[in-house]
Amino acid sequence: MNENINSQLPALDSQPSILSPQRSALIVNVEQRFREYLQANNLRQTRERFAILQAVYETEGTFTIEDLQKRLLQINFHVSTATLYNTTLLLVRANLLVRHPFSSSSAVFERIYDERPRTYQVCNNCHQITLIKSRELSAAVLSYKPRRFSVSHRITYIYGVCPKCKRALQKNLNNSQYSSNETR
Over 80: is that where the pLDDT of 151 sits? Predict the structure, then answer.
């Protein structure tokens, strides 16, 4: 895509998105919610913020700031890392994005516009993150109706050890037991 960068910048109304030729109803709705949030907080509605919003909502699953920056660079849309961090913080505050509390070195984000509950398995050793797709678990999470509390989104985290790390830990344990038996 060697077009002029300005032609790739999203307009604040109904132009196609920078990443896909068709604007989805989801993108239009999310842009409206973000626009309302920015207006309510007397913040500027910049093309960069809406480009980042579109890139976020055209990304499935979790992502880091680095992933988002790579995605934008693929289409020759250059934005500073500081702008990415500041805009993702605004999207979190607008309840359009969640920052996961995973213990990895990079912040991990995910869009949260819909009502679907999400459940993740997180390995304590390698920090591998796996989305669990279970109708029973989703039904259980949705069935919980808190009193005097408005739910914006539902995310559950299950921490433990993945099969790969479990095998490695078991192997290390077996090796250490073997070595201690030989030293006796």
Answer: yes
